[in-house]
């Protein structure tokens, strides 16, 4: 009798442990999975077309940085990504209240071979094209480029010389900047 009782107790323990507190359901329900990396290619497991690449473009809304994702059939180079940033939001992004603080700005990016720090040459803005908040404008560039897997930091140049720019807190620096330097300005996705 004690053998049957021991077997029943063991079976009950196994059933209770295997349940893990998740009740059985008759119908499927939606599950929110963790966000996959934005800078990788899509795969069959995500249900997206093979070869689709997510590109982060950091736009603005109410003087805040907002990371948006645009998908394309192929990866974009850093210069093309900055060109899209300067061009501004798509009509769908405009409908969400997004804009850019970089309109009419000329940017040229280089990434030296073997380096993960991009150098961005920035033109002198046209007169009358002043920015309300330069930290947001520089933050757009830094957050867009450092969302790439091949760029970890960004430094700025004007006429080939190091340029002092504001970080997210308004402190001026000539050091390479990362997205973490603008964390206080970035809205959650």
UniProtKB/TrEMBL annotation:
Give the highest taxon in the source lineage. Answer: Bacteria
Q: Where is the GerMN domain?
A: 78-167
Q: Does the keyword Secreted apply?
A: no
Recorded hits in InterPro entries, A to Z, give: GerMN
Q: Which UniProt keywords apply?
A: Signal
Provide the leader sequence positions.
1-24
Carries keyword Signal? yes
Question: Which named protein is this?
Answer: Sporulation and spore germination protein
Organism, as annotated: Actinoplanes xinjiangensis
